[in-house]
């Protein structure tokens, strides 16, 4: 990587650190760090440690995971419009988690912690495999993939609607809030579970950054350059499905982070995935942290679902991308 890219990533990391420190103080109850260190009020300190800090850190992990999943999808499909939400991968994970909510099983505590993520992983993986197989067909095109994504989203949405209809009041409220995306249920246990899945997945994707660069030349060219194309594709698909699954299982459906962030990073840092991957993780964490901070302060003491804010930001960006690409092809 060039010196400019390294400096850009360092600046992004510093901005993320500053924003993290600021975000821990904002909310329905103002808790600046200086107050916590100078005040002997244990109640405020406990609120900061058990509620505010886990939520801020979970926003970083979820945002980074969604952005990285989008980065991988865009690299695999070689198209900036590829996104886990648009292609139906998030909906597949959402349907699996909805099944888990409405039809719970009695399992040991440790298994219960990871069970929603396992269900979401299977749902995300099923949708990912369908999309990937269709993308390998010669007659496949972006419009075809987007139509398939719309169909998957519609089918999964209908299935979630049926599950909502047969659910009880508590399950219905959980499904409704979770479908709009929220980090309100953040706890140290859920943060640990998501982080334990994200960290090794990020490391695997980082190790495959050079292979992902070569795949941009085409599968045949990458093969001649020494890339085991099928293995790399399968590993990256599994990793992206795992990232989406972990995010959806904990925070619900938060759209457009995986679309906007990787595209912005490619515009800023270039096409080298050795720069785009860490840039996407940092920028995704930054974007979702800002969105969540706004969501819990804009209408305080109430709270706005963070998925609504990301959709408000992401939908115009998606339209701009479509018209921009349409103008280029025209």
TrEMBL record:
The keyword Membrane applies. One of its GO terms (molecular function) is transmembrane transporter activity. The chain crosses the membrane at residues 54-73, 85-107, 113-134, 146-166, 186-206, 235-261, 281-299, 306-323. It is found in: Cell membrane. One of its GO terms (cellular component) is plasma membrane. The keyword Plastid does not apply. One of its GO terms (biological process) is siderophore-iron import into cell. This is Iron ABC transporter permease. It comes from Enterobacter soli.
